[in-house]
Design goal:
The chain is about 40% helix and about 20% strand. With about 350 residues, it is an alpha/beta fold. It contains 11 helices and 12 strands. The protein has a 7-stranded mixed β-sheet. β4, α1 and β5 form a beta-alpha-beta unit. The structure holds zinc ion. The site of zinc ion has 7 residues, from α2 and β12.
Length: about 350
């Protein structure tokens, strides 16, 4: 498939190949450019008379498309499916693999229990209503949320319960290929898990690695995320499949580490001077230094609000993660910053 002709799900020009690509013998990834909201990647490991899928998509039609590509690639049955974390864009298609054993960390199992496909449909209808009929900031919020969801169809989704959970690490055999699961959260979410294929030197990092996309933390501190990065780096993989973005390796992992260190330092400076979370995020993304750094060109700079919020929360003891109920209020500010960035670019 030529990516030059295929726009991203969100309608921007794709900057890398879409679809199932071979990474190593019997190891593939479905890449979903450009890694924006819910443009998430999926992994595939093929063994002898067995295969494992790592994550699914945000809805059933896209998951069916991915499974169709998998069937073209291999006749081996998918006997195991691993969810790297509990966000809907990675778990909403799991029901299409009812015969495959679903394995997650305990944190992911808990996060999945919060996912509500009915709530998602209602949010979409509400956001579309605001986008069409509301004035001012509610319209901006509705437009942002609705555009995130426009490429997807949330009908028919049911959330699966994991068949097997583990707390820190687990090794699986998939038709003779070893898969090491390591729980490295909380960082992006509490359950963050990586899947390491030692014989092939491949790590599926889930949303512990975003490449070319501003990451965001819901559940962990910057320190927690940096420890996860260290552990991935210590495996010395030749390829890292990020949760969002193109195929990566050590340089992209290092860049993410630099981003977090920089973001944390700039946030503390601004907060020390009395800035609010929103003011701090605004100051960062409109600053000259941001534009000069590699992350100045990353997708979704407005997510800086979420990361500043996490750093602000880490100044208090005990640290309190962003709960599912607190997400909409923060997304209101994310939409506001997106609006300001759009206006500045126009
Ligand atoms: Zn994701």
């Amino acid at each position: 498939m030529s990516f030059a002709n295929a726009p991203s799900l969100h309608g921007t020009a794709a900057t890398y190949e879409t679809g199932l690509v071979d990474i190593a013998p019997g190891v593939c990834a479905w890449l979903q450019p450009n890694g924006d909201w819910s443009e998430s990647n999926v992994g595939l490991v093929i063994g002898d008379r067995a295969a494992a899928l790592i994550d699914t998509a945000w809805d059933l039609p896209l998951t069916r498309r991915i499974l169709g590509a998998v069937q073209q690639r291999t006749a081996e049955p998918i006997t195991k499916v691993i969810a790297t974390h509990g966000d809907g864009d990675h778990v909403n298609g799991l029901q299409l693999l009812p015969q495959a054993e679903l394995i997650t960390s305990t944190g992911t199992a808990a996060d999945m229990a919060h996912e509500s496909p009915g709530g998602l449909r209602r949010s979409y209808l509400g956001a579309r209503f605001l986008r069409t009929f509301a004035p001012g900031p509610p319209r901006r919020f509705g437009a942002y949320i609705a555009s995130m969801m426009d490429p997807f169809d949330f009908r028919g989704i049911t959330i699966r319960t994991p068949d097997r959970v583990f707390s820190s690490a687990l090794t699986l055999d998939v038709g003779g290929v070893a898969l090491e699961l390591h729980h490295l959260g909380p960082a992006h979410t509490s359950g963050d898990t990586i899947v390491y294929v030692p014989e092939r030197g491949v790590v599926f990092a889930g949303d512990l690695l975003f490449t070319g996309v501003t990451p965001n933390s819901w559940s962990g501190t910057v320190g927690g995320w940096l420890r996860a990065i260290d552990k991935i780096g210590a495996l010395d993989p030749s390829v890292i499949v990020p949760g969002h973005g193109p195929l990566s390796g050590a340089p992209e992992l290092e860049l993410l580490e630099q981003y977090w260190r920089w973001l944390e330092q700039r946030t503390h400076q601004a907060l020390d001077q009395g800035a609010s979370v929103y003011e701090c995020a605004r100051e960062i993304v409109f600053g000259e230094e941001f534009a000069e750094r590699p992350w100045g060109a990353w997708v979704c700079p407005e997510r800086t609000v979420l990361n500043v919020e996490i750093v602000a929360r880490s100044r208090a003891t005990p640290f309190r993660p962003i709960t599912h109920r607190q997400r909409p209020a923060l997304m209101w500010q994310v939409a506001r910053l997106h609006g300001e960035l759009q206006a500045a670019r126009a």
